[in-house]
Design brief:
single chain; alpha+beta; Uridine Diphospho-n-acetylenolpyruvylglucosamine Reductase, domain 2; Uridine Diphospho-n-acetylenolpyruvylglucosamine Reductase, domain 3; 4-stranded mixed β-sheet
Length: about 325
């Protein structure tokens, strides 16, 4: 247990935030022992993984930050067609996907290079390039902070939505994810229909790309658009892509004929938030050390010494301006603490 612990290396915005209490643990036994201590019972608690999707508003967190660090993965079941994988929550997500691609296991390749740890992935139902975590998800094991028991959640009980799950709604703050299971295929069809993946592969002369080719293509595309948090503080996409009914979109399209959209579900479409922010004139904007990335309008960045409140204020300015110009509300994807 650490007192007055600096969380700068535990949040991808690189904010100098100090937690009054910090515990990094790598076993369920250690977690259960912590639950018996006064520091657990008497303080506000925050479970923190890789810190790639969080914005601290203040420079001091009065409470207990819990970091579960057990990492690694193993094969639970395998046949000639599929494999069941269990990954521990502290495993780096990007490295885990790389391992699956190297093994020739299909299903997660479109989620290459997403920052963060495995434990946070189902909470956010992470997604990219037409694929979401729920597509390969089987179940997860979590520790219930109220009862001290280990519980299992299957796909229906996780209540996955667009960048959302039960753990961001009714179960928020109650559970710590211990491990996640995925069912992957040994042979599969590559999903190359979303965005500019096909164009990129064609430019590389890859008419029949392999699993590894697709993963590397997605990495290159992401690197060209998204800044590396190790070089400049950011949390990736700050806002969700808004969903709206097809009929509402058609009305908006009459005013803005060039507005792009992608089919979603139940007669809804998804509008790229980056297009709205860019069109509203925020791309490349900077005030002090808080700004919008020059290559990707969906990414808010900390150029060095921005505070959490400065970044949040910028996000709210963008939210209000986009709503005023387009009548569309942008919902933050990042967790605000």
């Amino acid at each position: 247990m650490d007192r007055f612990f600096n969380l700068k290396s535990y949040n991808s915005f690189g904010l100098n935030v100090v937690a009054s209490h910090f515990a990094s643990l790598e076993s369920v036994e250690a977690l259960k022992a912590l639950m018996d201590e006064a520091v657990f019972k008497e303080n506000k608690r925050l479970v923190l993984g890789g810190g790639s999707n969080i914005l601290f508003l203040d420079d001091f967190f009065e409470g207990l930050v819990i970091h579960y660090s057990k990492s690694g993965w193993e094969v639970l079941e395998e046949d000639e067609n599929e494999v069941l994988i269990c990954a521990h929550a502290g495993t780096d997500w990007s490295n885990f996907v790389d391992d699956m691609v190297e093994k020739g296991f299909y299903g997660l390749e479109n989620l290459s290079l997403i920052p963060g740890n495995v434990g946070a992935a189902p909470m956010q139902n992470i997604g990219a390039y037409g694929v979401e975590l729920k597509d390969c998800f089987v179940q997860l094991e979590a520790l219930d902070f109220q009862t001290g028991k280990q519980v299992t959640f299957d796909r229906p009980t996780c209540d996955f939505g667009y960048r959302s799950s039960f753990f961001k709604q009714g179960g928020k703050g109650r559970y710590l994810v211990l491990s996640v299971q995925f069912r992957l295929k040994k042979q599969g069809n590559l999903n190359m229909a979303y965005g500019n993946i096909s164009d990129y592969l064609n430019e590389q002369g890859l008419e029949n790309p392999s699993l590894k080719d697709l993963s590397e293509a997605i990495k290159s595309i992401r690197r060209s658009k998204l800044p590396d948090p190790k070089e400049i503080g950011n949390s990736g996409s700050f806002f969700k892509n808004p969903l709206m009914h097809q009929l509402v979109f058609e009305q908006l399209q009459m005013e803005f004929p060039e507005i792009p959209a992608f089919p979603a579900t139940n007669n809804t479409v998804k509008i790229p938030a980056a297009w709205l922010i860019d069109r509203a004139g925020w791309k490349g904007y900077r005030k002090g050390d808080a700004g919008v990335h020059k290559n990707q309008a969906l990414v808010l960045v900390n150029y060095g010494k921005a505070s959490g409140r400065e970044l949040f204020a910028l996000a709210m300015q963008i939210q209000l301006d986009v709503n005023k110009k387009f009548g569309v509300f942008l919902e933050p994807e990042v967790n605000i603490v």
